[in-house]
Design goal:
The protein is α+β, with helices and mostly antiparallel strands. It has one domain (about 20-235). It has three helices and 14 strands. It has a nine-stranded mixed sheet, with no helix packed on it. A five-stranded antiparallel sheet has the order 2-3-4-5-6, with helices on one face. The longest helix has 21 residues, at about 20-40. It is globular. About 25% of the residues are buried.
């Protein structure tokens, strides 16, 4: 008699267990991801206050770099810090309608309020975001690196600097005119010694897109002041 009672008790507990099956868990995970992506797209200011990546103590200027975080196909977002400021980056749209919003928050002031700057008509998909001070003027610069879709994955850069907490556009300048000989895009970018470094494979005639045979080319750019703002020039 006792073995039968024990069996019935164990069976009853198993039937009332809260463990979800695989389909229920997948639906729940999908709903959470969709909610997070929609929140980032609709409210970059909230994203700036809450944070998405690169959180923790603020590193020294020039030491921070953050790859973007992709939530499905859109939105694409990232978080950067520079001293007492935090920048939420959100890219939305498709094709020629793509835009990038930079929401800047002063961590010493009202950290729930963000001042937003929108860059429109962005070419390509946002691949990397960097905060730097290339010209050593103690003002932060935000660099946004994109890659176009298609066979020629051409790299582009969009930049904003902040002078007295006001956004000033950085023009791409020489960046838009790489050495065309053997160039088919597929650029990679990083910061070194207060310069933007661009590296891309060199193709010889007849090379397949997947098999460049001409080695790699490295180009360096510096930030320079001009009458109506700032511009990137090839380093001499």
């Amino acid at each position: 008699m006792r073995p039968i009672i024990c069996f019935l008790l164990i069976f009853g507990i198993a039937c009332n267990s809260p463990i979800k099956n695989k389909n229920e868990m997948a639906d729940s995970s999908s709903n959470i991801q969709e909610g997070a992506s929609q929140s980032a797209a609709n409210n970059p200011s909230q994203n700036a206050a809450g944070g998405t990546a690169n959180m923790g103590s603020a590193p020294a200027p020039g030491e921070e770099e953050a790859n973007v975080r992709k939530g499905g196909t859109e939105p694409v977002s990232g978080m950067l810090r520079f001293n007492d400021h935090k920048y939420a980056i959100v890219s939305k749209g498709d094709g020629s309608a793509r835009s990038i919003t930079i929401a800047a928050t002063n961590l010493k002031g009202d950290s729930s309020k963000a001042d937003s700057t929108v860059i429109r008509d962005v070419k390509g998909v946002l691949q990397k975001t960097v905060v730097e001070d290339l010209n050593n003027d103690r003002n932060p610069e935000i660099y946004l690196f994109t890659t176009s879709a298609g066979t020629d994955a051409t790299g582009s850069v969009y930049g904003i600097t902040y002078i007295n907490n006001k956004p000033v556009r950085i023009f791409s300048g020489d960046f838009d005119d790489p050495d065309k000989e053997g160039y088919r895009g597929r650029d990679s970018f990083y910061i070194q010694q207060r310069q933007i470094v661009r590296v891309y494979p060199v193709y010889k005639e007849g090379d397949l897109d997947t098999k460049p045979s001409g080695g790699k080319r490295t180009v360096r750019y510096t930030l320079q002041k001009q009458a109506n703002g700032f511009i990137l020039r090839t380093a001499k």
